[in-house]
Amino acid sequence: MAIAKPVRFLGALSVVLFFFLIYQYLRPVPTIQPPGTVTGNGDKIENWEQDPLLEPIGEPPEPLWRHTDHDYTPDSVNSARINATLLSLVRNEELQDLIPTMKQLEETWNSKFNYPWTFFNDVPFTDEFKEQTQAVTKAKCSYHVIPKEHWEMPSWVSEELYQESAKILKENDVQYAGLKSYHQMCRWNSGMFYRHPALEATQYYWRVEPKVKFFCHVDYDVFRYMQDHNKTYGFNINLFDSPESIPSLWPETIKFLASHPDYLHKNNAMAWLVDNNRRPDNNIKAHGYSTCHFWSNFEIADMSFWRSQAYEDYFTHLDRTGGFFYERWGDAPVHSIALGLFEDASKIHWYGRQLLGLLRLTNDRFKDIGYNHIPFYNCPNSPKCSGCTPGQFYGGEPWLQREDCRPLWFKYVGMG
Ligand code: GDP
Ligand code: MN
């Protein structure tokens, strides 16, 4: 019996498509070589850093069905912008350190997308601050004072005990131990910023500090990427912390987990949090925590996580202990521990290199955001970047290399 021509054609087409899809899934994709692997040119990979950080990178592809002609003009009513903001807690005195940072981020990224800037301060911003910051961006800037109840030392923390504790922390060389505002800043960044009324209707933020540098031209909408790929948190530097600043943070976390075992996500990053191989001293001094954390002066994140019941309960538990003042808990380890325990590890994204692509059609393209906050770098190997050395991790003393914790993240969680 003769088969109609169109049917034969469709049959042939689906066979071709079938084999094409099989090919796409089976063909080799660049992967991270584990230590000990001998590469094609005979080099032995000695450590985890060597390979991934030097791999050439580019941009993630837009999914095929999307077009790149989104409307990002500053005041468009039909704007393609995601519900997001650039966010900065900053002092008036830091204006001259902030301006070059803003200019860099505008030039490399935001001038294409015009995301609004939201500035926070514990005292009112000066007119000079407002004028000079607004002058470097077409996007809208807004300026907000932090309510006292979000910033001041909470009533249950004893001033006297704080002063005594600060002396001990100082003896242990904990940086900024005696600077009360630093403790306040860490607490605010840990559990307060996303409660500010100015952010009530905002979902994503990109945290920016004065003095930091951005090295790469980034041509995709990073917030759209977060949303499209269902990411909660993006980081680019992973460091060991000073265990002397957080001796009871992990023990308090364990206590919290004991009473809320259901908050632990089944795809958590516990192994990354408790590693004791690479820096055993840190783990001992922090009583079971590797001290490995996302360096939070750079973070691109979805505030829904901070606003979740799990994080709310965790932060409240920590805050009640007074540890933000009696010790010097940073927002970086607090955020990192919470993400590592309560979030799906696959929703945490490294802005360094990312395999991507619908059907892996474009598996040779990667993404990245080159970054520096003294003294550490994330410096990708890409023609889009300039001003840092590809693969460079620190500026200054060579011992700083020891602080790199990314290899642990790659080992336990991966690079996806
Ligand atoms: P480091 O990166 O840990 O050395 O801390 P920074 O001094 O850079 O502070 C972290 C961020 O908080 C920066 O954006 C500072 O501008 C900001 N910051 C720190 N302390 C204060 C403060 O007392 N008031 C305000 N408004 N901002 C602060
Ligand atoms: Mn800083």
TrEMBL record:
One of its GO terms (biological process) is cell wall mannoprotein biosynthetic process. InterPro entries: Glyco_trans_15, Nucleotide-diphossugar_trans. The chain crosses the membrane at residues 7-26. One of its GO terms (molecular function) is alpha-1,2-mannosyltransferase activity. The keyword Heme does not apply. Keywords: Glycosyltransferase, Membrane, Transferase, Transmembrane, Transmembrane helix. Pfam families: Glyco_transf_15 (PF01793). It comes from the Eukaryota. GO terms for cellular component: Golgi apparatus; membrane. Belongs to the glycosyltransferase 15 family. This is Mannosyltransferase. It comes from Cladophialophora yegresii CBS 114405.
